[in-house]
């Protein structure tokens, strides 16, 4: 009996202990659940307030912002397309009381109606409806609004069960491959892939959520590009690449005072709508990504640095023996000059691209002084233009210099630069020694076209004194008038410039290639007070390798474009004094009826005058100033929030009656 009680007591203690542990576990479980619930509720509240959002979130109902050139021409825009599909079970299933023959006749009728609209042969569509392995049959992707409206009209008279019209956005690039390395593209996730599309993705297609879950609108961009100038410049460089059998070409035109890039050519190019079909080399944004030895163009900057440091007197002379020779630690090395020039002024050293003169002049500065003077131009640093993948180039520390480094640097070797770095450095000559940051974007725009943010002229820093700028501009003009850059000469227009030819590194041997060169030219117009800077780089030309033969004539052709395109005055330009103000005719106003007028044959200016109502919208495709087509057509009933599409052409067409 005693033993039985002892065993019972032990069992009771054990049960009590187990009951106690179970209660603790229950309490812990309940508290954990409450804590997790509070965390989830708090997170949901925070997300609703717009403080955080899940990674990769996007707002699908926001139309991606448009990219314009400086004159409002569309470079990239969002287009609403439609996916047309059939939910096949709705068509295949026999209706109540319907025979098999009646079902087939019904499907035949629907195939005959849909086929011409979605561009399918009726018999093929009929068989697809009957035998397609999936329940959903995609009839057409990226259908336009005309097809959608035709289907909607048919659906009002003929019942087509399972017909689905789903709206979707796609990106349209009306100018095709024009400036595409700059503009970029959208990747498969509909986010910016490269170029402006990538760099301004957060503005063009915001992913954040504003207060009270209201969608945040997108912004549009107005670039500094002039698309007409861009098209003409690309044509010039493209033709030169074919003629010279070159691999690639770059052409940049900049407003010399503001830093605005007017033309940004990087060839080869690609169609951003089908970017996957192109190689990475075809899509490369050469003006900012590629670093190369600039060759003799760089003498403009090193000579300015030495004159500003007052180690050279612009009035002194130098005798070129045809080479530069130096002995250090018992070892002698020699650098060949382009010729035995004999006695020359400092201006002649630049005009004749004298290697010996530049090398001997460089001895007058210490390594650190020379390095810092080059760095003051921004070489070895990014320009921070708002584009991804920009190179810093190459400017080695003086501790890594050899005995040859300083004299070869003075000639544009042993340094890596980008085309955009050259452009930024060149602005020092056009702004009294102060460099201006290159600009490619003018404005961020609200949905209504008003300016959200402007990008203003930005001074980077001083490279040299105003006096040095004046001296170098005079020497650059002398180079065109009497030197190697004489192919830049234009009648009645003073041009300053410098040409360059440089070797490239063979990636296999890691030494200079005997076959691949870079030909370049830097030009300033007008030379005395430059308003524009032009820089041309032709990679690996075959027929001729010299910058003076290859790049200088191209720069001259582009300057002639500026004369006609922007009205760059020459010495023969006549200024007409008007005795009275000219009469500006108002654009023709169209009728205020409830149907659309006929815009075809009118100028865009006349057509757009119609859009005085806030509830009407328009979209322009094509490249021109005259309306060649419109949709909806004339006579269509005007509906609130309707969008009227115009296709434009450069020349007027005969107006349809």
Automatic annotation (TrEMBL):
GO CC annotation terms, alphabetical: plasma membrane
Listed name of the protein: Penicillin-binding protein
Superkingdom of source: Bacteria
Cross-referenced Pfam families: PBP_dimer, Transpeptidase
PANTHER family assigned: PEPTIDOGLYCAN D,D-TRANSPEPTIDASE, PEPTIDOGLYCAN D,D-TRANSPEPTIDASE FTSI
Taxon lineage: Bacteria, Pseudomonadati, Spirochaetota, Spirochaetia, Spirochaetales
Provenance organism: Entomospira nematocerorum
Residue span, Penicillin-binding protein transpeptidase domain: 249-559
Annotated compartments: Membrane
């Amino acid at each position: 009996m005693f033993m039985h009680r002892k065993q019972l007591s032990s069992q009771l203690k054990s049960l009590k202990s187990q009951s106690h542990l179970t209660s603790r576990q229950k309490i812990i479980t309940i508290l954990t659940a409450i804590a997790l619930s509070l965390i989830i509720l708090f997170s949901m509240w925070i997300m609703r307030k717009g403080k955080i959002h899940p990674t990769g979130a996007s707002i699908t109902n926001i139309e991606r912002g448009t990219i314009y050139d400086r004159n409002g021409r569309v470079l990239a825009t969002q287009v609403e397309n439609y996916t047309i599909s059939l939910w096949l079970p709705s068509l295949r299933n026999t209706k109540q009381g319907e025979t098999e023959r009646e079902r087939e006749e019904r499907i035949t009728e629907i195939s005959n109606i849909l086929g011409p609209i979605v561009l399918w042969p009726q018999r093929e569509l009929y068989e697809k409806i009957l035998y397609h392995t999936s329940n959903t049959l995609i009839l057409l992707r990226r259908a336009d609004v005309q097809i959608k409206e035709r289907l909607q009209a048919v659906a009002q008279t003929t019942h087509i069960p399972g017909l689905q019209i789903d709206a979707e956005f796609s990106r349209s690039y009306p100018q095709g491959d024009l400036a595409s390395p700059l503009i970029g593209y959208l990747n498969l996730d509909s986010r910016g892939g490269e170029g402006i599309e990538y760099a301004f993705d957060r503005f063009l297609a915001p992913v954040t959520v504003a207060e009270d879950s209201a969608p945040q609108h997108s912004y549009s961009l107005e670039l500094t590009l002039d698309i007409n100038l861009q098209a003409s410049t690309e044509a010039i460089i493209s033709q030169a690449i074919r003629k010279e059998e070159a691999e690639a070409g770059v052409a940049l035109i900049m407003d010399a005072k503001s830093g605005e890039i007017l033309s940004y050519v990087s060839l080869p190019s690609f169609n951003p709508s089908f970017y996957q079909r192109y190689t990475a080399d075809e899509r490369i944004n050469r003006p900012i990504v590629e670093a190369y030895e600039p060759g003799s163009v760089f003498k403009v900057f090193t000579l300015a640095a030495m004159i500003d440091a007052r180690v050279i007197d612009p009035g002194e002379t130098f005798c070129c023996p045809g080479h530069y020779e130096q002995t250090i630690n018992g070892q002698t090395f020699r650098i060949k000059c382009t010729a035995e020039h004999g006695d020359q002024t400092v201006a002649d050293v630049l005009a004749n691209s004298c290697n010996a003169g530049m090398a001997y002049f460089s001895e007058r500065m210490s390594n650190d002084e020379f390095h810092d003077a080059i760095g003051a131009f921004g070489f070895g640093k990014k320009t921070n233009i708002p584009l991804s993948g920009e190179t810093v180039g190459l400017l080695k520390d003086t501790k890594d210099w050899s005995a040859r480094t300083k004299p070869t640097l003075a000639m544009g070797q042993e340094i890596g630069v980008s085309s955009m770095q050259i452009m930024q450095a060149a602005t020092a000559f056009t702004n009294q020694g102060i460099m201006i940051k290159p600009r490619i974007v003018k404005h961020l725009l609200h949905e209504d076209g008003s300016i959200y943010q402007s990008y203003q002229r930005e001074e980077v820093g001083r490279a040299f004194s105003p006096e040095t700028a004046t001296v170098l501009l005079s020497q650059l003009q002398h180079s065109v008038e009497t030197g190697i850059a004489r192919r830049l000469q234009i009648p009645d227009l003073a041009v300053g410039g410098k040409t360059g030819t440089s070797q490239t590194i063979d990636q296999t041997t890691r030494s200079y290639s005997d076959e691949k060169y870079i030909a370049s030219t830097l030009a300033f117009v007008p030379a005395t007070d430059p308003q524009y800077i032009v820089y041309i780089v032709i990679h690996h030309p075959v027929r001729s390798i010299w910058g003076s033969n290859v790049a200088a004539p191209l720069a001259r052709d582009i300057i002639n474009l500026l004369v006609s395109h922007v009205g760059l005055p020459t010495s023969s330009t006549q200024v007409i004094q008007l005795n009275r103000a000219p009469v500006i005719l108002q654009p023709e106003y169209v009728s205020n009826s409830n149907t659309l007028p006929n815009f075809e044959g009118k100028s865009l200016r006349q057509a757009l005058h119609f859009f005085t109502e806030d509830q009407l919208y328009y979209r322009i495709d094509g490249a021109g100033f005259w309306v060649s087509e419109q949709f909806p057509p004339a006579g269509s009933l005007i509906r609130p929030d309707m969008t009227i599409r115009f296709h434009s052409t450069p020349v007027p067409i005969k107006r349809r009656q």
